[in-house]
Amino acid sequence: MAGLGWVLTLFYSPFAFITISRAMEKMDPTLEEAARVSGASPMRTVFDVTLPLMAPSILAGGLLVFIAAGSCFGIPAIVGMPGNIEVMTTRIVTYIYMGDTAGVRDATALAASLMFLANILLFGMTWMVGKKDYTTISGKSTRPNIVELGKWKWPCFCLVGAYSMISIIIPLGSIVLTSLIITLSKPIALDNLGFDAWIPVITSSQYMESVWNSVVYAVIAACIGTLISIFIAYLAVKTRIKGRSLPDLLVVIGGSTPSIVIALALIITFSGNFGLNLYSTMWIMVVAYLVKYMTMSVRTIAASLSQVHISLEEAALNSGASWLRCCKDIIMPLIAPSIVAGWFLIFMPSFYELTMSLLLYGSDTKTIGVLLYELQTYADTQNASVLSVIILLIVLIGNLILNKVSKGNVGI
Predict the structure, then answer these.
(1) Residue 6 phi/psi, 5° resolution?
(2) I need a surface site. Which of 34, 259, 316, 375 has the fewest CB within 10 A?
(3) How many domains does the chain have?
């Protein structure tokens, strides 16, 4: 149990870090400066000023981690189930795999409970934050207050270094090293390292088909999702139509819904019960990816659209340009980097997605995430390591492009 909790902590802690660090970057430092001028020590300033002001972001980060970890299937299945440790997501999958009405009913009840718990926590956080005023961002340009660590410099450096070593360098290094070992039963040495384990993987039609499926499904989801995101973002930001925020709200609800709940809902909806059977096809997986991952794309494009002043559109329209011409020649070029970023924000998580794919795939639609899970389940460690390195390389390249396009503001 402790091992499962530790792995989940390492995997999801970046979610909280991103949420909290972005809020710290935008916080007005004059409040901390006023506390220091009044004689407060750095530690007193942190506990009496910084942390109370950061409460919404800390709560949001904690809630995000809780919901993500609570709806995770892959880590509990690989780390917990061999030790007979079950969580709600693994139990839901077990019920679905029973293949009968009772199993689906029990899975639906558990999924509804998971969804209810997530919404209760979200409502509770909103209620707590709404009781106080946490506004610290004004119209003036500010920069974060830099704190001199002094004698704590090297202890903090060692702490961050140890965390990086434990959470990133050792795990990823182990995967890369395992993929390069020729014979696992022999000691690690230069004469036992090579790309011998890669050849069966990259020449296997089964493995490469799964990689190709993941790329194709992710590309289709990203293209469709980006087009829909542009429309929803424009509707919410640039129009005054009644109900314009409803599509945006639906996208947010989909993004905050646990993956396993989305998969179960799609199974029930598109298994022929309502006249349309998409189960085990490519399209049900694309729909799942769109529901889950379109939120960040909409948010990124909407933020960029909000910076395009209405006077640019008015000038184009007054000059005789049509609305479509205005969009093509003015708006689209200005928000092009955000569109590309939004595309990658859908593509990358869709490419390596596991939970929904595991419940929705068919014999011809297996993805790299499902294949990797099966290899790990069957204790084929070396082939699993090779596929993991392939995923890492693709995600790394995508992240580099995304960071370049978004100027370091967005990444996965």
Answers:
(1) -65, -45
(2) 34
(3) 3
